[in-house]
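Example 3.2
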Amino acid sequence: MTRRQTASIVFVVLCVVLVAAAVTLNIGWILVNGRRVAPLILGVFSFSLIIAGIIVYTVFLVREMGITEQQDSFLSSVTHELKTPIASIRLYLETLQAREVGDAQRKEFYRIMLQDADRLQHTVEQVLKAGAARQRSKLHEVAPVDLAWLVHECVDTARMRHNLPPEAVSIVDVDPQTPLVVDGDVDDLRAAIANLLDNAVKYSGGRPQVTVQAAGPAPDTVWVRVKDAGVGIPRAQLNRIFNRFYRFQTGGFKVKGTGLGLYIVRSIAKRHGGRVFAESSGEGKGATFTLELPRSKSDPGARSPAPGARQAV
């Protein structure tokens, strides 16, 4: 148990004691002034305000302590995500500077340094996108985006970034020749799908088994669904996982990250007039994330739903 958790418990207990004391005094006041209407009403009203104030103050204080703890955890995670690739790149550069290495080993060093640079860039982009998500509530530039094409691009990128074979992240029933068009920002939508894929891979454990599907389940709706067979999510956590800085950690399975990925996905979905939600049967049973967006009126397929699109993955 952390110091902040202990402090939260102390404040909650203190709140209960103060409320109990205020209620006792209130009852005593009623008994003493039972026949005097004006002091009775004034006393009951005053004590009610005191009790309400104590409760509101305690809830606010505990909530702020929780936010502060999440921010501290975020800073620690970001520091780790920044320091680790920098230290790795520095080590390989010092090795190349200090001694002669063969061509094969030099190419391997370059490959690892490029991977570390990509990891560093990804962390910086996540922080920048999270900051932009809080400031931007509307889209400034809107253009038609084909989600079927974008899903294939994001899956290829995820396989390459995580060094995964094609079967680890598979695409189900997504025909790149059948467009699923939405009106939006292609960079935002690419970031949303990429974050869902990264999250699925990270929480899949040793052997990722991720499936991706894009479909038009209704004439005015398009969704991208990412399903993994990983650690799963307790039902009580399904809504909280989209909060900023929040990271679900199951027993014995720790995941590195900033706690911003799903928050960014939710912000992008809202900005596009859509939503994102998670489904899971519990820990150890995998999870399914669905990004649902309004379909573009310019999409030829918007008039009728795609065949078989209502079937869940």
